Amino acid sequence: MSKMVLIRDPRFKKHQTPDAHPESPSRLSSIDNVIAKWALAQRVNEVLPRKATFTDIARVHKESYVEELKDKAERASRDNSLIKLDLDTYMGSESFEIAQLAAGAGLAAVDAVTDDPSNTHCAFVAVRPPGHHALVDAPMGFCLFNNVALAARYAQKERGYQRVFIIDWDVHHGNGTQWAFYDDPSVFFTSFQQYPFWPFDSGWYLEDGQGEGRGYNMNIPLPKGTGDRGYLKAFDALVRPILLEFNPDLILVSAGYDAHQEDPLGSQRISTPGYAMLSQRVKDLADELEVPAVVFLEGGYNVKTLADSAVATMRVLNAQDEAECGAVHASYLMPMSAANSNHVTGDQDEVQVDERIEEIRRHFKRYWRSLR
């Protein structure tokens, strides 16, 4: 398999947030530096994003909300100010157009993996602002437009995909994506998250869809202190069997790296090698089903571990064969004297994690034969 598509653009750094805000341009600058360290740009196909149109955005978001954001961007431009949209979400004069570009980057990624499937099997979308908290009619959690949801709808409405499987491994629940597809059996959404955590009103496993969408929304709320062992076990025991049974023709990933053990906003214990192993599972499933996979940057606020982990995902996706995959994983596994971020981690309470995974399996086996 040939090169991964990477979508990035320096314009994403123009989205404005206050000084010391965790969602800052330095996140993308750090990723750029690690891409350069591994000389990855020479080994991938880079594609520039395009702006999502109002029609594209209206497939998920209410037109009144889009107009409201546009008006606020114009006010920010007139006043040369930052607009506070909610407790922690901001926009400046250029943020509306940059959010359009971030949304359009996902559409360009879908095009790339669709138009040349023999040469392009996967893509990584390195954008800001992130998207998975954005609601149909409101911003939330640093997010303006729901990039992954817009890509899923575009794939179905414009590119002929029928069944989309979305995996969200951000430390926070992907509530915006959940509610966008809560009654839709053509999109399966699963979200790993620290629980209880923010958002405080969503993310429990009994939220399993409604109407025809019952059973097509699976939350995996993991206890504080869950590490590589618990995340990988949950993926293997819950996500893999359902994904194979659902048999999607497109896999999308909301890849937050804030469940890293060194991230300042979360309390989980995933390591950089752990993210490489999660990414390998996505790649393996995409290869097994011969379907494309598109990975979207979401959270991650320790810029070093964010960059290392995001580029680990890219290197895994871009690996040409089994030997190269092995070499990529080996490069992240250091001796015990090395940095903690390069140690595969266990769980603070292995029994509690295993009990939670079993609770979720028992609940969802009513919907999915593969869990019985």
Question: Which terms summarize this structure?
Answer:
single chain; 372 residues; alpha/beta; Arginase, Chain A; eight-stranded parallel beta sheet; two-stranded antiparallel sheet; 11 helices; 10 strands; 41% helix; globular
Please characterize this protein's 3D structure:
By secondary structure, the chain is an alpha/beta fold. It has helices at 26-37, 54-57, 63-79, 95-115, 147-158, 175-180, 228-246, 272-289, 303-318, 322-332, 350-364, and strands spanning 5-7, 45-47, 83-84, 90-91, 122-125, 164-168, 187-194, 217-222, 250-255, 293-297. It has one domain (5-371): 3-Layer(aba) Sandwich (Arginase, Chain A). It is built from eleven helices and ten strands. An eight-stranded parallel β-sheet has the order 2-1-5-10-9-6-7-8, sandwiched between helices. A two-stranded antiparallel ribbon has the order 3-4. Strand 9, helix 8 (272-289) and strand 10 (293-297) form a beta-alpha-beta unit. The longest helix is centred in the N-terminal third of the chain and has 21 residues, at 95-115.
